[in-house]
Write a structure and sequence with these properties.
Layout (H helix, E strand, L loop, with lengths): L2 H7 L4 E6 L2 H12 L3 E6 L4 E2 L5 E2 L2 H9 L3 E2 L8 H10 L3 E5 L7 H4 L6 E5 L7 E2 L2 H7 L4 E8 L9 E8 L5 H25 L14 E2 L15 H10 L6 E5 L2 E11 L11 E4 L4 E4 L4 E9 L4 E3 H8 L7 E2 L3
Parallel strand pairs: 1-2, 1-6, 2-5, 6-7, 8-11
Antiparallel strand pairs: 3-4, 7-9, 9-10, 12-13, 12-18, 13-16, 14-15, 15-16, 16-17
Helix pairs in contact: 1-7, 2-3, 2-7, 6-8
Length: about 325
């Protein structure tokens, strides 16, 4: 092993880290554990939760625990003071993972080894803001993580390394954990190759690219006119937020666990309850039926289908709808 590689593994690189959610915190922890010098961590501003309590990002909490300097720009491209601070630090590399803001050229050009991104898909598939949810929604059995060199385009830079992971039947919480751990390990394996010049940079094939758009609250709403397997994937993809939801007697119902019965033909209009069992009920969909096991009625706690049916007196023929 070269002296340079040994220097890298002992923390010889100065890395500015940018990220926000738990997915990113996993990569930050891996860099800390590997002994890299991290003079600055940049994350999204704190947000208000219930009762106006401020919620810290997972990255900020980890940085606080590690005693690292933290910056929280509203818009990094407009924050001249922060950009000047990064220039002052003169990092060897900037590592980005689910930061939530697009970096301007004035930042991309600062580190001598460039800016690299830990992206939660097998690029060029599922560029954009929600690649993990996008993989679930598309019904992919496999996804993964790509380490890429950043440029001004959205996830269009050269690929440096990849790792594939089995996500068959998993929900977004499970997929997030799998890809976060895989991405953190891949990051620490890849950085030494970037530092010593042995990394191979591969152009993305634009003909294979796809895009995972930013999710909004209304994406979770369903009137059950779609096929049951599509709705079941929505439940898994949107489990954390915004959840897959509909309305019963004017009250919102969030769905958390269900199976798609694609071999059963609907016997009523989409949204109508087809049958009830001890611990489940089925809903007619545009194609097939959805068997529901767990949900949450507005103003109530998350509960199993049995308790829900007893409390709401759910019967065949009742219908889930969406507001006009």
């Amino acid at each position: 092993m070269s002296d340079n590689r040994e220097n890298v593994s002992n923390g010889g690189l100065r890395i500015v880290f940018m990220g926000t959610p738990e997915f990113a915190a996993c990569s930050l922890k891996a860099l800390i554990d590997a002994g890299y010098e991290i003079p600055l961590v940049i994350t999204q501003p704190d947000r208000k939760g219930n009762r106006n309590k401020m919620i810290l990002s997972a990255v900020k909490q980890l940085a606080l625990d590690a005693g690292l300097e933290i910056a929280q720009p509203v818009r990094i491209r407009r924050d001249a003071e922060l950009i000047a601070r990064i220039r002052e630090i003169a990092p060897d590399m900037i590592v980005v993972a689910s930061f939530g803001q697009i970096l301007p050229r004035s930042v991309l050009d600062i580190p001598r080894l460039g800016c690299i991104n830990v992206h939660g898909s097998l690029l060029p598939m599922l560029r954009g803001a929600s690649p993990m949810q996008g993989a679930i929604l598309a019904g992919h059995d496999e996804s993964g993580v790509t380490i890429m060199r950043m440029e001004e385009g959205l996830d269009t830079g050269d690929m440096i390394s990849k790792v594939a992971c089995d996500i068959r039947g998993k929900d977004i919480t499970e997929v997030g954990t799998i890809l976060a751990e895989a991405g953190a390990a891949l990051l620490t394996e890849t950085i030494p190759h970037i530092a010593d010049g042995t990394a191979v940079y591969e152009k993305q094939d634009e003909s294979l690219s796809s895009y995972a758009k930013m999710i909004n609250k209304k994406d979770g709403m369903t009137d059950f006119s779609e096929p049951a397997d599509v709705i079941e994937r929505k439940i898994r993809a949107y489990l954390d937020w915004p959840t897959c939801y509909s309305y019963l007697d004017g009250l919102q119902v969030k769905f958390f666990r269900a199976d798609a019965l694609m071999d059963e033909q609907p016997d009523g209009e989409p949204g109508t309850v087809s049958a009830t069992g001890k611990n489940f009920y089925t809903i007619n969909c545009g194609e097939g039926k959805l068997r529901v096991y767990e949900q949450q009625l507005q103003g109530k706690k998350r509960m199993g289908a049995g308790d829900f049916m007893r409390g709401h007196q759910l019967r065949p023929g009742d219908r889930f709808t969406v507001p006009e």
